[in-house]
Design a protein that fits this description.
This protein is of the alpha/beta class and 316 residues long. It has two domains: 9-144, Glycogen Phosphorylase B (Rossmann fold, 3-Layer(aba) Sandwich); 164-310, Glycogen Phosphorylase B (Rossmann fold), CATH 3.40.50.2000. 35% of the residues lie in helices and 16% in strands. It contains twelve helices and twelve strands. The strands form two sheets. The chain has a six-stranded parallel beta sheet with strand order 3-2-1-4-5-6. Strand 8 (206-209), helix 8 (216-225) and strand 9 (230-231) form a beta-alpha-beta unit.
Length: 316
């Protein structure tokens, strides 16, 4: 396919989650630059639609309702939409069982060129070691198989916000103690974060808690352990987190989506991993990203986190 043909219609599939979506920003940019004159559509889920529209890489964003097997009318509507759009190539960056089914929705008939792992697709990423590759390396290799020679690192320079409303004065460090509720093993304890926060205030640094309403209980427990903390539970959008990351001295957090945003904005970041996830496969990357891993994570001492943070944060 000629990357400059203006009549090309490209579909990119990336459904989530947040960390994965942020790590796909490099591939999104690579696809946009390779298909400079094409109309590019992203198929994603509702939580990421607004972000996708703001990033500038797509002409159109479709929201996938992720129908279950019994929702036949929804499957038929999706099939009709996919087949009627005239896509000339599809980049399946989700490479899941679900997105593989979407490839089948083009049958019978001629399917568009397809980059992914669906059986019978035109540009298979058939490396048997793909599941042991870091997400960034895996997606870069997948795109290379289609002729996209270089895939840049995620760039969130377009993401900004006015954070003056938070009234933060002096130096501060971001704390991201949240995580998926169904994976509690990925969380460092509230008591440990509270002790870390007290250490930071003793060093003249303001700890700033980031998280959504689902993290309210753990964030309240941490705030109770350190009265000087700024608890921004439920008050920040992703753009706010990006802006805070650029001003912060550093950040500490679990293996959770906001840490991907923070790291991608160049903030010196210390990310805490348990045995429940593998940093070799999914950790944020960057010159100022540092990883600590313990299994279980409760075995990671506050002193070790403090020591690592002191060598991580920006100098005063």
């Amino acid at each position: 396919m000629n990357a400059d043909v203006t009549t090309s219609r490209i579909l990119v599939i990336k459904l989530g989650a947040l960390g994965d979506f942020i790590q796909a920003m490099g591939p999104f940019r690579a696809i946009r630059e390779f298909h400079r004159g094409a109309r590019i559509t992203l198929l994603t889920t509702a939580p990421f639609a607004a972000l996708a529209r703001k990033c500038g890489y797509f002409d159109e964003v479709w929201v996938d309702d992720r129908p279950n097997l019994l929702q036949v009318p929804s499957w038929l509507r999706l099939r009709l939409r996919l087949r009627g759009a005239g896509f000339t190539r599809v980049y399946d960056l989700q490479t899941s069982d679900r997105s593989g089914v979407y490839f089948r929705l083009f049958w019978p008939g001629v399917a568009p060129e397809w980059s992914g792992i669906a059986g019978g697709c035109s540009h298979p990423h058939d490396n048997p070691e793909r599941d042991s590759m870091h997400s960034l390396d895996r997606q870069a290799q997948q795109l290379a198989r289609t002729g996209i020679a270089e895939t840049p690192a995620p760039d969130l320079s377009w993401m900004s916000a006015d954070i003056s409303r938070f009234g933060l004065e002096g130096d501060f460090v971001l704390l991201a103690p949240g995580g998926a509720a169904h994976r509690p093993a990925k969380r460092w304890g509230a008591e440990s974060y509270g002790a870390l926060a007290r250490h930071l205030t003793g060093q003249g640094l303001t700890p700033v808690l980031l998280g959504g309403h689902d993290d309210a209980q753990v964030m309240a427990a941490i705030a109770a352990a350190c009265p000087e903390i700024r608890n921004l539970c439920g008050e920040t959008e992703l753009e706010d987190i990006a802006a805070l990351a650029r001003d912060a001295r550093g950040a500490v957090g679990n293996d959770t989506g906001p840490m991907h945003v923070i790291a991608a904005c160049g903030c010196p970041s210390l990310v805490l991993f348990s045995g429940d996830s593998d940093p070799d496969l999914c950790a944020p990357r960057g010159a100022d990203v540092h990883i600590l891993r313990r299994d279980p994570l409760a075995g990671l001492g506050v002193e070790e986190v403090v020591s690592s943070l002191e060598s991580t944060i920006r100098p005063n």
